[in-house]
Amino acid sequence: MLVSAKEMLQKAKAGKYAVGQFNINNLEWTKAILLTAQELKSPVILGVSEGAGKYMTGYKTVVGMVNGMMEELNITVPVALHLDHGSYEGCMKCIEAGFSSIMFDGSHFPIDENVEKTTELVKICAEKGMSLEAEVGSIGGEEDGVIGKGECADPQECKKIADLGVTMLAAGIGNIHGKYPANWEGLSFETLQAVSELTGDMPLVLHGGTGIPEDQIKKAISLGVAKINVNTECQLSFAAATRKYIEEGKDLQGKGFDPRKLLAPGTEAIKATVKEKMELFGSIGKAE
Ligand SMILES: [Zn+2]
Q1: Ligand 1 center to residue 267 CA distance, Å?
Q2: What mean pLDDT, rounded, does the chain reach?
Q3: CATH of domain 6-236
Q4: CA 177 to ligand 1 center in whole angstroms
Q5: 143 pLDDT tier (thresholds 50, 70, 90)
Q6: What is the arithmetic mean of pLDDT over 57-68?
């Protein structure tokens, strides 16, 4: 059964490790992530962007697939199904469809409007036992066609949103979605420290986990980051393994064109990436 992300993230914050949010795109992605989490006894968050939700034909399909898969694969570790960068309307649809967690990305609204909409969602999520992630300070890079410029959040605004009663808070600390440019200046630990001090026990979320050096990830966890989003890295490893299979001509040998064979190396590659991240984040064995 799907769970809210609240308990797993509070445990992670207290235990100084982070739970990975791995975004899903289809059945292979979901299966690879769930099986790896179960094998490694790690809690996990399945992220679904609005674009991916649409691709999978809608949120109800996603909920049906994930619930079915958890039952048939005997997944017993805590799993949250989470809307990534949701609009207000997207959040309402996911609440109705049976997600266990949502992110409302109000970072592009003026702070007062972000506060107003977040307050409404805090109330609904509390009634439904769901977790809610809020965002302050837009996160750079491209997410479903929206381009932002790695900003640093205002720590006082973070406190204002955290105090509304959200479950976890994403604050821009110079992080970017997608691949990092060569001239990237790194994470702003000064901002992270200030946000962490003002928000106390609030689990903080680091978006754009792909390409941040390992030492910076570890330092961010030590300063209060308890959830790290990984998306691009699974896409890159899936694509590389699929490319290799085809370039080696394996789809032309025997029944190598069978989609179950053709997609297998990519699926295994996602598993390896998820395992690597769970090791780095320190979440292995934490679901026991
Ligand atoms: Zn993000």
Answers
A1: 23
A2: 94
A3: 3.20.20.70
A4: 6
A5: low
A6: 98
